[in-house]
Write a structure and sequence with these properties.
The complex is a heterodimer of chains A (about 190) and B (about 130).
Chain A (H helix, E strand, L loop, with lengths): L14 E4 L4 E5 L4 E7 L3 E7 L4 E7 L13 H19 L8 E6 L10 H16 L2 E7 L4 E7 L4 E7 L20 E3 L1
Parallel strand pairs in A: 1-3, 6-7
Antiparallel strand pairs in A: 2-5, 3-8, 4-5, 4-6, 8-9
Helix pairs in contact in A: 1-2
Chain B lengths: L1 E2 L8 E5 L3 H13 L3 E5 L2 H8 L6 E4 L8 H9 L9 E5 L4 H10 L3 E4 L4 H11 L2
Parallel strand pairs in B: 2-3, 2-4, 4-5, 5-6
Antiparallel strand pairs in B: 1-3
Classes of the chains: A alpha+beta (about 190), B alpha/beta (about 130).
């Protein structure tokens, strides 16, 4: 520890991971802190207090592209990121039945435009209810951007409002894998 | 076990997924394509139901409690009744190792979530006996 390091003795150095739109990260490492900046996007912070495993995703529901047919693929993409997050946590020893959720974001930044923030928030709440996951807390909707820090090993979250200019340019993104929807027959 | 509405098309599909949200999405998508859909909440639920029922195609997730997708495929392939039943894996996973394991267990194919309803329906029609 250097003379300028103000960490308490024995406290490990923080490893901050930024969770971008379309991503999901899980960890049980005490030094890891997940962070994100949200406008109309929603971040789900899940925590298993027994396994001490946590994870965060960051999604923005997309309008269904014409080539994807007639389904409501906006929810499909949010569902994908929820499942991706849960699966990553299960790999680290979490149990779905023990998960507790905290939801952040979903702001409606431009009052004249579509209420996509509220749509994101409604999807997240509905998903948790359908899956039987306890929603422990929410800080959703409103008109302010948010900055969220989540310690996955403890479940501790800090959230503050931030300037809209701090938000990375966000738009409904293509799913993050190139082989999404790919059909492979053996 | 839940049951979708009767459809005129005779192809019957059993979807196996522990996520209620994903089951709802699959039910909606496959019914709109004209399939008759049955649903199980995990591999064990599917095995129990298949002990006394028949379907044309099985679509299963991998990560599930009690009995996962790999276990389900292995158990079905041990049964003469289901030895040749088409089984598609529908998963967020896409690693070659997982696909190889599914293929070795006897899966017919692999689809990466989020699925494209048109491609999923085309795959089902292609493999349905």
């Amino acid at each position: 520890m250097s003379a300028m390091d103000r960490r308490p003795p024995g406290k490990p150095a923080a490893k901050r991971i930024t969770v971008l739109q379309g991503e999901a990260h899980a960890s049980s490492a005490p030094q890891v802190e997940l962070s994100t900046v949200l406008g109309s996007c929603v971040a789900t912070c899940l925590f298993d207090p027994i396994a001490r495993v946590g994870g965060m995703n960051h999604f923005l529901l997309a309008e269904p592209p014409p080539h994807l047919g007639h389904l409501e693929f906006d929810e499909h993409y949010g569902l994908f990121l929820m499942e991706l997050l849960i699966n990553e946590m299960l790999k680290l020893g979490a149990a779905k039945s023990r998960l507790k959720a905290r939801l952040y974001g979903g702001a409606n930044m431009n009052s004249g435009l579509s209420q996509i923030g509220s749509a994101n928030a409604a999807f997240a709440r509905r998903f948790l209810q359908q899956e039987g996951i306890v929603q422990a807390f929410e800080d959703l909707e409103g008109q302010s951007a948010r900055r969220v820090y989540f310690q996955p090993a403890t479940g501790r979250v800090r959230c503050s409002t931030t300037a809209q200019a701090a938000i990375p340019k966000q738009k409904p993104a293509a799913p993050p894998q190139s082989d999404i929807g790919q059909v492979e027959l053996f | 076990m839940t049951k979708g509405h009767e459809m005129t098309q005779s192809t019957r599909i059993l979807t196996v997924d522990d996520s209620a949200s994903m089951r709802a999405l699959l039910l909606n998508a496959l019914q709109q394509e004209g399939f008759n859909v049955e649903q199980a909440v995990d591999g064990q639920d599917a095995l129990d139901w298949l002990a006394t029922n028949e379907v044309d195609v099985i679509i299963t997730d991998i990560n599930m409690p009690r009995l996962d997708g790999f276990g389900l495929i292995e158990r079905l392939r041990e049964s003469a009744r289901h030895a040749d039943r088409p089984i598609l894996v529908l998963s967020t996973e896409s690693s070659d190792e997982k696909k190889r394991r599914a293929r070795d267990a006897g899966a017919t194919g692999w689809i990466v979530k989020p699925f494209n309803a048109d491609k999923l329906a085309a795959a089902v029609r292609r493999i349905a006996h």
